[in-house]
């Protein structure tokens, strides 16, 4: 709670996880950083020039003209169904078996993650995440009163050997075993790394041995630059341990709030039962109209090209400007580069002066379930233009020199 005012009776009635979230000093502090004149390398936003605004307007108009009342009524019309068909076809092409699996459309991938948590997590359960991981998912997990453990990430994604050790140690000690392991195997947020094929196989073996669900987040899977990621975990096994979520946020537009999950049929049914409030059927309809015409798939090469150029530009600027004791990842896709500063530089503490010098980023500590990541930070290369990337990296390099 805010320190200057005592909590009101209503605030005191907030649940413990919510009070924790509000109290957490890191939570949201970065939102207050003055950013108006600074280049924002903070947000995982798509390049707005890539939004297919005219085509979406056309789809919206066509849906209303053709389906009128149905599109506006509970349940939606046929174009809504065409979204589901499109997604099933897309996921089938990735290798998901729809004899044994089914698909649920959700209001974005985060809603899909929340729905999976509702279906699986009891308070006091244990879950395992990559450290660092997507902070939106961490925020969801924290709402469920679970213990969150992290496993490190290196250039080949989650260090699955370390996960195996953690699992064996816990079993030996008689500790609670995890219900869920959350992973972003392709072009990870925030590190940009990709889980190797070998480690995918090992992770699946562990899921069988220790009986946990893998929650596979494929938000960036289509946004490869150099080459596609290895096959999704969900397609590498005929066991029932993987639930895969996807999103239109990065390939179409975050504003549509559309995502999905695929899971073994009875798990999909359980998720469908607990997903509250239904989805936005009108948006499903016009996104279905847009995707059904092939335009989403047709747009992907251009997205890959533009993001590839921006990534290369940011990498070149890092090379040209960063002090020798700063390291960073080289992502093969996605939106992010993860930077490791010298031990003596605290990315949280540096943020205000970096903003004044002309750049903002997200401090690494936001991406861990516990205290960690003080000398790390995330840069996004997708949202801003190339000259801004240059200015932003120059300002970052100057801030690091000043902070050390
Ligand atoms: C790994 C990951 N999953 C999911 C999302 C969000 O998806 P959505 O906007 O569909 O909830 C993001 C966005 O930053 C992400 O990085």
UniProtKB/TrEMBL annotation:
Its cofactor is pyridoxal 5'-phosphate. Transmembrane segments: none annotated. Residues 41-396 form the Aminotransferase class I/classII large domain. It holds the Pfam family Aminotran_1_2. Gene3D superfamilies: Aspartate Aminotransferase, domain 1, Type I PLP-dependent aspartate aminotransferase-like (Major domain). Keywords: Aminotransferase, Pyridoxal phosphate, Transferase. The keyword Transferase applies. One of its GO terms (molecular function) is transaminase activity. GO terms for biological process: alpha-amino acid metabolic process. The keyword rRNA-binding does not apply. InterPro entries: Aminotransferase_I/II_large, Class-I_PLP-dep_aminotransf, PyrdxlP-dep_Trfase, PyrdxlP-dep_Trfase_major, PyrdxlP-dep_Trfase_small. This is 2-aminoadipate transaminase. It comes from Halovenus aranensis.
